[in-house]
Design a protein that fits this description.
The complex is a heterodimer of chains A (546) and B (371). With 546 residues, chain A is α/β, with parallel strands linked by helices. Chain A has 4 domains: 2-178, Ribosomal Protein S5, domain 2; 186-223, no CATH class; 231-444, Rossmann fold, CATH 3.40.50.300; 448-535, no CATH class. Chain B is of the alpha/beta class and 371 residues long. Chain B folds into 3 domains: 3-82, no CATH class; 122-295, Rossmann fold (3-Layer(aba) Sandwich); 315-368, Winged helix-like DNA-binding domain superfamily/Winged helix DNA-binding domain (Arc Repressor Mutant, subunit A, Orthogonal Bundle), CATH 1.10.10. Chain B starts with a helix and ends with a strand. Classes of the chains: A alpha/beta (546), B alpha/beta (371). The A-B interface holds A 236-240, 242, 394, 396-397, 400-404, 424-426, 428, 491, 494-495, 498-499, 516, 527-528, 531-532, 534-535, 539, 543-544, 546 and B 129-133, 136, 159-160, 164, 167, 191, 267-270, 328, 330-333, 335-336, 341-344, 346-347, 349-351, 353-354, 360, 362-365.
Chain lengths: 546, 371
Amino acid sequence: MFSKVYSAAIHGIDGLIVSVEADVSNGLPVFDMVGYLGSEVKEARERVRIALRNAGYLLPAKRITVNLSPADIRKEGTAFDLPVAIAILTAFGHLPEEELKDFLIIGELSLDGKVNKVNGVLPIVYSAKQQGFTKCIVPRGNAGEGAAVAGIQVFGVSTLKEAAELLLGPKGKALECMDQRELFGGSLTGKGELFEENRRKMSGGKISEGGQGNLIEEDTEEDSAQGLPDFSEVAGQRAAKRAIEVAVCGMHNILMIGPPGSGKTMLAKRIPTIMPELSFEESMEISKIYSIAGLLGQQPLVTRRPFRSPHHTITTTALVGGGATPKPGEVSLSHLGVLFLDELPEFQKNTLEVLRQPLEEKSVTISRLRGSYQYPAGFMAVAAMNPCSCGYYPDRNRCNCTINMVKRYLGRISQPLLDRFDICMEALPMNYKELQQQEAQESSSAIRKRVSMARQIQLERYRGQNIYFNSELTPRAIKKYCKLEAKEQELLEEAFVRMNLSARAYHRILKVARTIADMDQSEEITTRHISEAICYRSIDQKYWGE
Amino acid sequence: MTKEELYFWLLCLPNIGQKKVELLLKTFGSIEALFEADPEEFEIFRQECCPASLKFSGQDIHTLCAGRKPEIIKAGYAKLLKGGIYLVSREDERYPGQLRNIYDAPHALYVKGRLPGKEEKLLAIVGARECTPYGREMARQFAGAMAKEGVGIVSGLARGIDAHAHEGALAAGGMTYGILGCGIDICYPRENLKLYMELQKQGAVLSEYAPGIAPIAGNFPMRNRIISGLCDAILVIEAKEKSGSLITVDYGLEQGKDIYALPGRATDRLSGGCNNLIKMGAKLVTKPKDILEDIVPNYKQIIQDFKKNNKLLELEEKIVYASLCLEPRHIEEIAVLTGMTIDVLVEQLLALELKGYIKQTMRNYYIAVEQ
């Protein structure tokens, strides 16, 4: 007998529907699997056979053939165990065949018949919905992730037996269809304000079906007000804070330079807290990537903007993604969030150079023999570095570096990469007085309000032009949106001659000036905006020059 | 053969240095006699006149005799002349008078540019290679002010204070002389190439070393005796307690020159040497006037005191300007001092900078500029 079950594989960040066909015929008792399988899929044969037996099903001595189609795409991962088992059971007549065409099934089996967690459930369920499936069977551990997708019924199962019963169960009753509210709602009410707030926010507007797309915060301790980093904890550093605010408003990449202990890392860690809250779509986009990377952990969706801070020993592949079966790298994991590169000159030079494309294109394309994969990489790059190898230049009482050493240290970063940092700011070492000062610092949420306002202006201005932030302005768009009056032109021109600025700097100054004007809610760019933008101008190799 | 060609021959010989040349010239009476001398005469010289400490060997005699090929020497010197380099021997009229009188004065100098005139007053400005923005500004200011009064600035064309002193003099349109520690055709350090070229137009580059001699560490202390010997007074801008600049000062003291030192804060490492000099009796200078009144005869012109000529500024600009001094301050500090927000402050700073009242020593570090 023949049977067909639908499952899915991950391709890039999307799910690709795979049909699992099983055939039982007379002949030698052999269990064969075909369809361009990776070794972990080939191993499914043993897992399925034993899991079926341990779940109480006796397989008669027949020839079993399983095919995964389309047969020209390589199948990887362990998510095919459960669909293979279901297909075999159906082929033997244990399960009814009619139901199967509405179901998409994924899950890994262990030998005792339990269903284990797999990676990439979210994008798979998402594609399933788009392909018109109405029901999904996923491992219980991934049920939350799957349930986050609206418009499809998701069933979490913990054993093979449970899955089989689900398919056997009388129609209509549809055995404990896992509406998220039933699954999470009860257990989560009273988990504090934040959850409620999230819930309101997430379900507001974007989601038509009530209850779909709830967000769950598992680690409540971390969530409590004290646990989250906040800008109010940073004393002093007014200039750096202001520069960061400008950078976040226009999604400009920022480079911070300062001696050790000046608070660069502290500032960077707080950047996500002043970025606008994630919308549901954004959350889905990020969660898909995290789902594939297996980084979702206990929570079904990512609810906070990612902050990724790879160590400077990171390899090129880990940074942009790749591998024989491509996996998203740090640039994709920081999509819609912050990629923080601490000690920028310490990174391998070629590792840094690969950042150039994602910084421009907002995505990474990884080409392999078997196809090319595209991962989103719309991150804001935040880099920090010391001015020299000892870290204290220009404080000559502590720094012994020669001018050449200082230049060489900066020279480790190529000019094209430096060009991609629109804003550059020095962080000053803190003195004791500043650390002790009691005056209240502005909190992240106050700054975030201003940021949201400035971003709203940009969104409206560039509506329908595939531009979202000032940092994405092309030279032509700059001409259109960054018009200067005579007085401002004059100032900029004078500054250019006096400060010996490069032509490259011109566009960056205008883009940043546009952002500063937006923060002021001013339509025109005034001299003040230009002045401030010049102050943040990005560095070039002459940086420390005389 | 001209005198220059003969000296060119003698000074290019390997392993025959300052001391040997000194004794040879003294013994043989003149450079012409030396050029004509037989190998036997050299042998007699070696056995009878040479102290053992000089280590004048048979090999040296061979070098002296073998190198005496007029065509090659002439061609070599012509090549130098073509490159704008000429040689001034101690017998030459043009040889700087001050230098002629010092102990161990070089037998000849290679010159690219114009030698200082007989009446020209010269001041050496020396200091640390790794200088602070303060040292940089002071070197430029002093060099500029001196150069304007017609005082030539002598320095070593090294990194740091040396380079900034040359720059200051050049910018003020004055004369400045760079003494090299390597062959005159070599620019060391490389990044001073622009200075090296400019100096030839507004002064000169000088060296006692034959073309092609590499800038080895041993050359530089010797070079310093020329710096100090050439000038009338020495100004030390910034020096650590153990600094090469102090070698120049030691030579200067031996040669009887006036020593000036710019003070720094007691805790500044880079001013330790200067402060020590002041303790030992060097004249403390804070303004170019302090030196000018000593070395320029009848120096009458009153140099305006550091005056904050800020009548033309807006109120906010005045506030910002008042918060600045010669010690570089970061925007952050200025914001704290003035109580302004960053966005307001940067506008004032840029306006002041464009008007020339303040200057960025490094990105976003500002100092007040003398008006």
